[in-house]
Amino acid sequence: MSVPQVGHLDPYFIGLMDEIQELLRYSFQTDNQLTVPISGTGSAGMEACIANLVEPGDRVVVGCNGYFGGRLAEMASRYGGEVESLTKPWGEVFALDELAGALAEHRPAILGLIHAETSTGARQPLDGVADLCRQHGCLLLVDTVTSLGGLPVRVDEWGIDAAYSGTQKCLSCPPGLGPVTFGARAAAKLEARRSRVTSWYLDLSLLLAYWGGGQRTYHHTAPISMNYGLREALRLVAEEGLEERWRRHRDSAEALWSGLGEMGLECHVAAEHRLPSLTTIRVPEGVDPGGVVKTLLAEDRIEIGGGLGELAGKVWRVGLMGYNSRRENVDRLLAALRRILGR
Amino acid sequence: MSVPQVGHLDPYFIGLMDEIQELLRYSFQTDNQLTVPISGTGSAGMEACIANLVEPGDRVVVGCNGYFGGRLAEMASRYGGEVESLTKPWGEVFALDELAGALAEHRPAILGLIHAETSTGARQPLDGVADLCRQHGCLLLVDTVTSLGGLPVRVDEWGIDAAYSGTQKCLSCPPGLGPVTFGARAAAKLEARRSRVTSWYLDLSLLLAYWGGGQRTYHHTAPISMNYGLREALRLVAEEGLEERWRRHRDSAEALWSGLGEMGLECHVAAEHRLPSLTTIRVPEGVDPGGVVKTLLAEDRIEIGGGLGELAGKVWRVGLMGYNSRRENVDRLLAALRRILGR
């Protein structure tokens, strides 16, 4: 990211854009032509999907089992969607028959699910969900902010119609871009829109005239350095290979879970639905959760998160993402927790 | 920008945010509390102003004498504004009595003007405009993308209610953030909104809970590296001093204009309305404008722009912004043009 700038229409940069798109397709496991990084953080990627897919009056069913489901629902509502929020206690996931029931009842245009809920550490299973959506003529929109590059995300094989992510989680790039990918059914909805996309900055049809095709029509000045960073991060993903990267995330998460168990600490999410990239640890009785976070930062230079929303004060959140997902970091954290908690 | 990342709620980063806000206020010459960098490029700054200030049905008068006036009008219309576009040939500016006539006729809620039209090289005079707006009870929104840090922008003294900019022009930072500032009257309109801001990502009331006040409530993950870059760019602006920086931009622009004159090349904009940061040169009869742009890039490693819109094929656009606005660059360009054009 400290490499000198070039113009956003410089032939060198155009070549770099092509590389980024190819590498993003690999990370998303998709052939979708419409695969681009939005010039904002992961939440801008989320908003780009909503702004383009939701038309006023569209019914949108959103799985709300954590903070980011709530954000997705809020955005869909702001863009004129008639939102039906499916709720679940934070840390649980939706079963296929629950989703089937919701689609049958609400007949939405879009189903939005959070694959990896950063606020809870839960992984939403997606087996069979795309088939359900096709049966009900609805699009499947999936949040992969904390899964892309850290655990399997197979956009084409799973039939995901649109997905978004951020750069600073398992892709291990600084925050600043929001990768999105749209399949044929989502692209068809874009083309059939009756109204303009309210957001000009996030309007994918305008963005595509710059990112896709031969014309490279100016839209906004691309954040050059951020794209340099993303290109290098994605290159490292490809160099390691997705399968190997997923295995590494899984291995270090399992080492963490096992070490926590030995200390008598409990994970909040059931083992089969845990994210390897983010673990929620239940705060033991009588322990001040904020105090532990502060001590870890001040004495051990380790940053972990507190609980959000329903889980505020009840859990700690430990990220093992991208470059950081390695055994030595797990061991360091476990040792620090043992010392601080006296376990 | 290659300094290691910290978390977006890390105490170190919170301190850096405070510094950025203070330095941005200096650059904008304002005491506005609501002065923040939007996490997107300059166009995201533009959209943040429109998304927050325009409510459906608001009448918005936009001065359209170039490409970016058109973009502002388009955004205002997408957010539900009833837009009246004042048009002028590209390269000209609006006289005070023309603006007075438009405000009297249309009674808008917002007047949007482009202080520095990057597509034409024209500087819109703002003397007396804020008084006019107050007489008509309307807000004055000003695009300072190509002026901030390069020529006088005095938000408080001039009575500008809201302004936005980009980082990659006269601030000499890589692209990726969109500084905005809102005065008391603009903030009052935000508070009195009858409807939610459609864009969640750009909703200033949410952004302020993170950037302002004591709570630092999480909104989106700030692009850490970009903020490092902006902080350093603004520090360099303060180190040089605005008056000195404006003088430097003026000096190198005058050297360019004079050199062009000696070559028999003509500036498109009248001398009194020329931007020091961006000069449009009329393409002489019989010269292929695109060919000159390509030769400059390939042989001289100098990037200049072609004409946009009304001026496509008719002008070249030469930026002398921030670090690049210096005599040696002017001399290099003039020598290259002399060689290529055989003058």
Write up what this structure looks like.
The structure is a homodimer of 343-residue chains. By secondary structure, chain A is of the alpha/beta class. Chain A has two domains: 11-239, Aspartate Aminotransferase, domain 2, CATH 3.40.640.10; 242-341, Aspartate Aminotransferase, domain 1 (Alpha-Beta Complex). Chain A has helices spanning 11-28, 42-53, 67-78, 96-106, 129-135, 155-158, 184-191, 204-211, 224-240, 242-262, 289-300, 327-341, and strands spanning 34-38, 59-64, 82-87, 110-114, 116-117, 122-123, 139-143, 162-164, 178-182, 278-282, 305-306, 315-319. In chain A, the strands form three sheets. A seven-stranded mixed beta sheet of chain A has the order 1-9-8-7-4-2-3, sandwiched between helices. In chain A, strand 11 (305-306) and strand 12 (315-319) form a beta hairpin. In chain A, helix 1 (11-28) crosses helix 9. Chain A is globular, with a radius of gyration of 20 Å. The interface between A and B is large, with 44 and 44 residues.
